[in-house]
TrEMBL record, chain A:
CDD domains: TM_PBP2 (cd06261)
The organism of origin for this protein: Streptomyces rugosispiralis
Localization per Swiss-Prot or TrEMBL: Cell membrane
Protein name in the entry: ABC transporter permease
Location of the ABC transmembrane type-1 domain: 94-292
Family per similarity comment: Belongs to the binding-protein-dependent transport system permease family.
Membrane topology: Multi-pass membrane protein
From TrEMBL, chain B:
Organism this protein belongs to: Streptomyces rugosispiralis
Location of the Solute-binding protein family domain: 95-407
PANTHER family per the UniProt record, alphabetical: D,D-DIPEPTIDE-BINDING PERIPLASMIC PROTEIN DDPA-RELATED, PERIPLASMIC BINDING COMPONENT OF ABC TRANSPORTER
InterPro entries, sorted: SBP_5 (IPR039424), SBP_5_dom (IPR000914)
Region (Disordered): 510-530
Descriptive protein name: ABC transporter substrate-binding protein
Keyword terms of this UniProt record: Signal
Pfam families to which the protein is assigned, alphabetical: SBP_bac_5
TrEMBL record, chain C:
Family: Belongs to the ABC transporter superfamily.
UniProt keywords, alphabetically: ATP-binding, Cell membrane, Membrane, Nucleotide-binding, Transport
ABC transporter domain residues: 17-267
Subcellular location: Cell membrane
Gene3D superfamilies: P-loop containing nucleotide triphosphate hydrolases
Keyword hit for ATP-binding: yes
CDD domains from the UniProt entry: ABC_NikE_OppD_transporters (cd03257)
Record's protein name: ABC transporter ATP-binding protein
Pfam families found in the cross-reference section: ABC_tran, oligo_HPY
PANTHER family the UniProt entry points to: DIPEPTIDE TRANSPORT ATP-BINDING PROTEIN DPPD, OLIGOPEPTIDE TRANSPORT ATP-BINDING PROTEIN APPD
MF term (GO), any: ATP binding
From TrEMBL, chain D:
Start and end residues of each ABC transmembrane type-1 domain: 96-285
Bilayer topology annotation: Multi-pass membrane protein
Domain of life: Bacteria
Keyword annotations from UniProtKB, A to Z: Cell membrane, Membrane, Transmembrane, Transmembrane helix, Transport
Coiled-coil residues: none
Family of this protein: Belongs to the binding-protein-dependent transport system permease family.
Lineage, uppermost ranks: Bacteria, Bacillati, Actinomycetota, Actinomycetes, Kitasatosporales
TM region(s), chain numbering: 31-53, 99-123, 209-230, 263-288
Pfam families (UniProt xref): BPD_transp_1 (PF00528)
UniProt cross-references to InterPro entries, sorted A to Z: BP-dependent_transpt_permease, MetI-like, MetI-like_sf
Location of this chain's protein in the cell: Cell membrane
Originating organism: Streptomyces rugosispiralis
Listed PANTHER family: D,D-DIPEPTIDE TRANSPORT SYSTEM PERMEASE PROTEIN DDPC-RELATED, OLIGOPEPTIDE TRANSPORT SYSTEM PERMEASE PROTEIN APPC
Name by which UniProt lists this protein: ABC transporter permease
Length: 309, 530, 337, 319
């Protein structure tokens, strides 16, 4: 397992370099941020001074070199907007999104396993049809729309939940997580159902039933673990997609997470913060991919064996 | 995993329960999450009626006082945390004494200010003329590149001198009749403030002091016990921010916030809102250097094609007033005689046709550039303008831009090779004097102007040297002249802001509220504190 | 009494397994077809019954419906299945589950897919004890190791932690058998237990099955298409064709004097019956599609004896001697030939 | 029960030997049939709707702003008007065209590029496989919405750019799926056989691997269809989606969100259109997958109202 991990990590490092390069170049394409940070009436001289102070007057390769050498020392530059260190801003925002995404995926996976298994247990039954319709609808509702309706209905109309914000008890998590949850949940229910139907028609399930195993044992003891592999893969991809959802959710609910930080830093041309945020996200996504692979290996002994020593 | 048969039974047990591992991780996440969420629950205890809760559109990037001409910063800092020497009465435009008790023009280039005594900063330090001199120097003459510097002073350098603890003289490079007005933008900080770097959390003389700033979450203020003026009604205040207007409105309706800025009429409950003129004016800036916009008939036709009343009633909730000039009533130089261009589609079409007959390429595509989030309903207004311009025979496409892109279109150097541009601008004259508008938007080489005429430049320069009634009249003339012979702008409306106000609080917004919200003026709706 | 029922052999008490008039319908995209039509037989403890037929003749379907493991597309539409006297078709789901294992057990043909690929085999072997005996994990594991020893897995304690893909085909089949006999069932159904294996391994597995059967006094239902296996291992045989029983009886008698042309054809096709120098006789043609079974005798299209009567009237399974029956209008003629 | 032996087996079945026609199968699955009808309707409207509505979708009338759905204002007033007084019905029709002209090319592009690369990489393995997978990793680790924001702000948000970005962002999904299928199939016997006969690898991929991988890829594509429409909507929420006066369902939902309390129909109706289309596509895709897979096909034969009534075998029918 360790050699498996080592190989996986090394092969991931190269793409990371490309991500850094890509973000750097894309950011420069969006133009010089001088106009945003100087008064409308700033003189050409002031503009030049500002550019020089932040290194925007250097050629792109020079800027890139500076960035890389500094990044190697874990110095990701200073935010133009707040004057804080970009690294610390990103690290402050990151846990918020991580918790949001972690909770969301946890609930989505557990919920989908439950609902998907129920649906798969009796294909074409009423439960199956209802679960299918609901999950498909859930997967196709625009998240910002869901969020706003949620605020109006549960926040204002029924007065059950706070409208937004991070101040308060556990109830503040409900709407943001629900908003992030709907799509992954909808997709996962369908994936679970599909692979569970496949697993339940496998001969070893017949064998288990011939041993007198009850439905619970059949589904959770035998079929579940066999059907979870595709679920994990899709869940991994959906988690990556949560970054997109986080942009919307954090914007609407006023959560100080990395999604909001990224969109703000794009709009404010705050390159240092944008680069640090994307880099951290990319590293996280790589870690996630490795985690998914490790889970595959944990769940399926055949995968474990296939990994060369 | 080398061997096919695991060698120790323990390992199997360890890996046999990925679900269990998942659950454990989840529980850990959950608990840590709750910990984060609860970390400032004590501070959040908000519905007690003793904390004034304000919801803004965005988090201030900084609270540095010399950046307070940035709306997001100023709305928190100005007159709450720090104060200027002089303040402008928003409705009348009259200047009121604040940290200065009086001022006079002592020589053509020098103004003398009497400094209030008995004022202390929130850190206990006494306030003297030296602090005032330091603050002006820091904001205007330092290398901090303060926003307020560029905004009100250009590259002008000031000579500041604290003659005595209660007397301050300011000397300008050339005669400046409105220096006290300009100085009303400089917030006073203690002389111990850094001149090397901008401060994140300032100290001032205002009625409230910052107690904590949780990045991304909230800014908390507490009443300044040593405040020299009347103590504010609320002992504490807290700012939070939500970018979606619907959510801000919901917070007011729900009672989660007492004041919400910049609501939009569609999502707000009318019972909980107050409309107020915010001194902003929307208009299309027509780039007169590019055909077909280089023809004044086309520019005037656009003015006539705009259905101001329709736009205001349907899209702006009836909150705005049709505009005929870039400055609203109340600003020095406003021309009361100008009437909005009549909405006459046929006449406009005829004008365009006339121009087309004279060889003007009226079918060249005009780009209508507007900025997302400039005001509520911006994209609908842009669509309406596009439709109305297309209806009189022009070829228009819309480009919605973000702030940075919009600025590239707005500021000199103007972008090249983008064809004719009709830029939807929103101009707010915070200072109350038309000079701030004309120097930016009308002078032929103004930073935000695409073209002009020599005659217009001459008239503006002449008006700027005057003061009093003559100044008002001269600027009014300038505005009228621009409409008649230059027509760089097709005006849309003088806007009004919508402030969300919970029934529990009493506050009267004025035109400055968007830039400067004086929390000290907010009180509980009924007499007697809960 | 349906004619398909065999006369009960002399003896006391119920047979271990008694099937009567079993009918199974199968839904296909082109409509419902009858896959098993009125099948009946019985087995006593210690005896072996072979269900013989070509693939698709309904023998596996019969086995699955006895065990209650049919796919949802298939449905039992008639008949009864009595295991030790109880009609399992009338039982509820949990009642059925109680029997599965301790009373009735089944061995599947493809051991690779029949074992759960992600569970150590020890745990799968221990499962019957956990389910029916409520044993602790540790005790059940001990039992599993015992079973593995019994079926001849070397180093059972170590191998109990291995996964199915780490075993050879023969070993996997042993594991599957071990799992089936774990709780000493009264009836063991073995559905082509040796099909996927090498010839040498086949013999070992068959020997193991026989030993276990004797040891535990089980009734064994052996489902196969292999005449040799039937001849060597079974006491009685039921020959099936297109969902119907065409001939039944003790193996020795049936094989020496077949009373149905299909049985005869099958026996003739075995090389040892062939005459050197002559082409190997085979049953000409192929069995009918289940959706196109003719109205009269199911075998008419391939039958050398077919006459007009065969197209009109389906022959009943009728007694043709002590404990033997056949479904042919001309079984007497066949015997005389 | 009458004597079963007397009843000739199989008389209940139609005596057709070849598989039933697909539309008969479709007709038997009511949900799939409804889905097919809806999808066909959406595509017809998208293709030809604009011919009928003329300029109704852009014709503004500020005096007819926010009329609720009613029968009083003619056919085009049926679904009410938006804030600019345009017919919501006409805009839905117009938007159907734009939405599909963004979603369909985006999905097709990513499907084609991703599948081709993935099959190729999976079939050859080794270095080529490694490089392809790392490219996928790189693309996947850019938060796609943010890249879209950057690119669309820099290079003007045209429909073409939106299609490009969405297509590139989704390539890795197909690449990975196709690679996995192809890597698994390359070791199968029939592929080996083809290889030993000297069949060029391009032909093997085309003839032997693609047909097997295709159903999975198509299923992924249907799910993606939904994703693309939603992302386009999210872009509109951020103000950089389809630019007015063009209109897409996503843009309508995004613009209508502020009128949720006062004029629900502006945001809800296009939302329903999105949901209906994607749900129909998913249902139909699931059905097609079943219908084209011989091993799964029997599932379509399950009678609908079966649960509840106890069959003779009360088995826990596990499929």
């Amino acid at each position: 397992m360790t050699s498996f991990l080592r190989k996986r990590v090394i092969s991931s490092a190269i793409p990371l370099v490309f991500v850094v390069l890509g973000v750097f170049c894309l950011a420069r394409l969006t133009g010089n941020p001088v106009d945003l940070y100087l008064p409308l009436s700033a003189t050409p001289q002031q503009r030049a001074e500002f550019s020089a102070a932040h290194g925007f007057d250097d050629s792109i390769p020079v800027q890139l070199w500076d960035y890389l050498t500094n990044a190697a020392r874990l110095d990701f530059g200073t935010s133009l907007r707040t004057g804080e260190s970009a690294g610390s801003m990103v690290l402050k925002a990151f846990p918020v999104t991580l918790q949001l995404a972690g909770m969301t995926m946890l609930l989505a996976i557990l919920g989908a396993l439950l609902v998907g298994s129920l649906a798969a247990y009796r294909p074409n039954s009423l439960i199956d049809r209802i679960a299918g319709l609901l999950s498909m609808t859930a997967a196709s509702i625009p998240d910002f729309w869901f969020a706003i309706v949620g605020v109006l209905v549960f926040g204002v109309g029924l007065d059950w939940l706070p409208t937004s914000g991070t101040l308060g008890g556990p109830e503040i998590w409900v709407l943001p997580i629900a908003t992030l949850l709907i799509r992954p949940f909808g997709v996962l229910v369908q994936v679970v159902r599909g692979s569970m139907v496949g697993a339940l028609s496998a001969p070893y399930v017949k064998v288990a039933r011939s041993k007198g195993a009850d439905p619970k044992r059949v589904v959770f003891g035998h079929a579940l673990r066999n059907s979870i592999t595709p679920v994990l893969t899709v869940a991994g991809d959906l988690t990556v997609g949560l970054v997109n959802g986080a942009v919307v959710v954090e914007t609407i609910f006023g959560w100080p997470g990395i999604g909001k930080l990224m969109i703000d830093s794009i709009l404010q041309r705050d390159f240092a913060v944008l680069q640090a945020a994307v880099l951290l996200t990319a590293v996280t996504i790589f870690a996630l991919n490795i985690l998914v692979d490790v889970c595959h290996a944990l769940i399926d002994p055949r995968v474990r064996q296939a990994v060369p020593a | 995993m080398k061997s096919s048969v695991p060698s120790s039974p323990r390992r199997e047990r360890g890996r046999a329960h990925p679900v269990l591992a998942l659950l454990t991780t989840g529980t850990m996440l959950l608990t840590s999450a709750c910990a984060v969420a609860n970390s400032d629950a004590g501070d959040a205890g908000s519905a007690d009626g003793r904390t004034l809760r304000v919801v803004l559109t965005q988090e201030p990037p900084t609270l540095e006082p010399c950046e307070s001409s940035l709306t997001a910063t100023g709305v928190v800092v100005r007159s709450n945390i720090t104060e200027p020497l002089v303040e402008r009465e928003p409705t009348s435009g009259k200047l009121d004494p604040l940290l200065a008790t009086g001022w006079r023009h002592t020589s053509p280039r020098t103004w003398t200010f009497d400094i209030r005594s008995g004022v202390t900063f929130q850190n206990g330090q006494p306030f003297t003329a030296e602090d005032a001199a330091f603050s002006i120097d820091r904001a205007v003459n330092s290398d901090l590149a303060c926003n307020v510097d560029g905004y009100v002073f250009g590259d002008e350098k000031l000579e500041v001198d604290a003659v005595s603890p209660t007397r301050l003289t300011v000397t300008t490079e050339k005669t400046d009749p409105i220096l006290p007005l300009r100085l009303s933008f400089v917030e006073i900080v203690p002389r111990t403030t850094s001149t090397e770097a901008k401060v994140r959390i300032p100290i001032g003389t205002g009625p409230y002091a910052v107690t904590s700033w949780q990045t991304g979450v909230s800014i908390s203020l507490a009443r300044n016990a040593n405040y020299w003026g009347k103590a504010p009604a609320y002992p504490r205040a807290r700012y939070v921010w939500r970018s979606d207007a619907g959510v801000r409105a919901a917070m007011i309706d729900k009672g989660e916030a007492d004041i919400a800025t910049a609501l939009d009429h569609t999502s707000a409950d009318t019972g909980n809102t107050v409309a107020y003129p915010n001194n902003e004016t929307t208009a299309l800036r027509l780039d007169g250097r590019e055909a077909p916009l280089d023809d004044i008939r086309v520019r005037k036709a656009i003015g006539m094609a705009v259905d101001r009343k329709g736009i205001i009633d349907a899209l702006l909730g009836g909150l705005a007033k049709p505009a005929a000039q870039l400055v609203p009533p109340g600003v020095v130089g406003h021309n009361d005689d100008l009437a909005p261009a009549p909405y006459r589609v046929a006449a406009a079409r005829a004008l365009v046709k006339q121009a087309a007959d004279d060889g003007v390429p009226v079918h060249r595509q005009i780009t209508l550039v507007a900025r997302n989030g400039m005001f509520a309903g911006i994209s609908e207004v842009a669509e309406a303008l596009q439709y109305e311009m297309a209806r009189v025979g022009l070829n228009v496409r819309i480009r919605m831009a973000d702030t940075a892109t919009h600025l590239q279109y707005q500021l000199r150097p103007l972008p090249r090779d983008v064809g004719p541009v009709a830029l939807l601008i929103m101009h707010g004259n915070q200072a109350g004097d038309a000079a701030f508008t004309t120097s930016q938007y009308l002078v032929s080489d103004g930073p935000q102007s695409t073209f002009g005429t020599k005659e217009l430049d001459r008239r503006i320069a002449a008006a700027d040297a005057l003061s009093g009634k003559a100044r008002e009249k001269a600027f009014a003339g300038v505005l009228g002249y621009q409409n008649e012979t230059v027509a760089q702008y097709a005006y849309v409306a003088h806007m009004r802001g919508l402030l969300g106000l919970s029934p529990k609080v009493r506050y009267r917004p004025d035109s400055a509220t968007g830039d400067e919200m004086r929390l000290a003026e907010v009180g509980p709706a009924k007499a007697g504190r809960r | 009494m349906t004619p398909s029922t065999l006369p009960a052999p002399a003896g006391t008490g119920h047979p271990a397994l008694e099937v009567e008039g079993l009918c199974v319908d199968l839904r296909t995209p082109s409509g419902t077809v009858r896959a098993v039509n009125g099948v009946g037989f019985q087995v006593r403890k210690g005896r072996t019954l072979a269900l013989l037929g070509e693939s698709g003749c309904g023998k596996s379907m019969t086995a699955l419906s006895i065990a209650g493991l049919l796919d949802p597309t298939a449905e039992v539409t008639g008949g009864s299945v009595k295991v030790s006297g109880t009609d399992v078709l009338r039982l509820g789901r949990s009642g059925r589950r109680k029997l599965a294992g301790p009373v009735l057990s089944i061995v599947f043909q493809d051991a690779l897919t029949a074992l759960n690929p992600v569970q150590p085999v020890g745990r799968q072997l221990a499962e019957p004890f956990r389910i029916h005996r409520g044993m602790s994990r540790r005790a059940a594991r001990e039992k599993a190791v015992e079973l593995m020893t019994r079926v001849g897995i070397p180093e059972p304690r170590l191998r109990a932690r291995a996964y199915p893909h780490q075993f050879s085909g023969g070993m996997r089949q042993r594991l599957l058998i071990a799992m089936a006999v774990a709780l000493d069932p009264d009836v063991l159904i073995a559905d082509e237990p040796t099909t996927a294996l090498d010839v040498t391994v086949q013999a070992q597995i068959m020997r193991l099955l026989r030993d276990l059967q004797t040891e535990r006094d089980m009734a064994l239902v052996l489902i196969t298409h292999d005449l040799a296996v039937v001849a060597q291992r079974a006491d009685d045989v039921v020959v099936m064709y297109a969902g119907n029983v065409v001939e039944t009886g003790p193996v020795a008698e049936v094989f020496s004097r077949p009373r149905h042309p299909y049985t005869k054809g099958l026996l003739d096709s075995v090389p040892e019956h062939a005459v050197r120098g002559r082409p190997l006789p085979a049953v000409p043609g192929s069995p009918p599609e289940l959706s196109a079974v003719p109205a009269g005798c199911v075998f008419q299209a391939r039958c050398p004896l077919a006459q007009e009567r065969c197209a009109q009237e389906r022959p009943r399974l009728t007694s043709v001697g002590a404990s033997r029956s056949a479904a042919c209008h001309f079984s007497e003629e066949l015997d005389r030939a | 029960m009458t004597d079963p032996a007397d009843r000739p087996a199989g008389v209940t079945a139609p005596s057709r030997q070849r598989p039933p026609r697909w539309w008969l199968l479709l007709g038997r699955d009511r949900a799939a049939a409804v889905a097919a009808v809806i999808l066909a309707g959406v595509f017809l409207v998208a293709l030809f709707g604009r011919l009928f509505i003329g300029d109704r979708a852009v014709r503004q009338d500020l005096r007819a702003s926010l009329r609720p759905p009613s029968l009083d204002h003619g056919f085009y007033g049926l679904l009410g008007t938006d804030v600019l007084g345009r017919s919501v019905l006409a805009r839905l029709v117009d938007a159907a065209g734009t939405t599909l002209s963004v979603a369909v090319p985006a999905v097709l592009c990513s499907l084609l590029i991703g599948s081709a690369l993935g099959l190729w990489a999976g079939y050859h393995g080794g270095m080529r496989e490694n490089v392809a997978m790392r490219v996928a990793d790189v693309i996947l680790s850019f938060p796609s919405l943010l890249i879209a924001v950057v690119v669309l702000y820099v290079f003007a948000p045209s429909a073409m750019n939106i299609v490009l970005i969405l297509a590139i962002a989704r390539v890795p999904v197909y690449l990975r799926t196709a690679r996995a299928e192809s890597a698994e199939l390359r070791s199968r016997l029939f592929v080996d056989a083809a290889r030993t006969f000297g069949t060029p690898s391009r032909n093997i991929i085309h003839r032997h691997i693609l047909p097997i991988a295709l159903p999975t890829l198509l299923t992924v594509a249907t799910l993606d269809f939904c994703f693309v429409m939603l992302t386009e909507s999210s872009l509109s929420f951020l103000g950089i989606g389809i630019q007015p006066p063009d209109v897409s369902w996503g843009l309508m939902v995004a613009q209508g969100r502020q009128y949720l309390q006062t004029a629900w129909w502006i945001a809800v109706l296009p939302g329903v259109a999105i949901v209906l289309t994607t749900v129909s596509a998913t249902v139909l895709a699931a059905w097609v997958r079943l219908a084209t897979d011989p091993a799964q096909r029997w599932r379509l034969t399950l009678p609908r109202k079966r649960r509840g009534n106890r069959a003779a075998v009360p088995s826990e029918m596990i499929a």
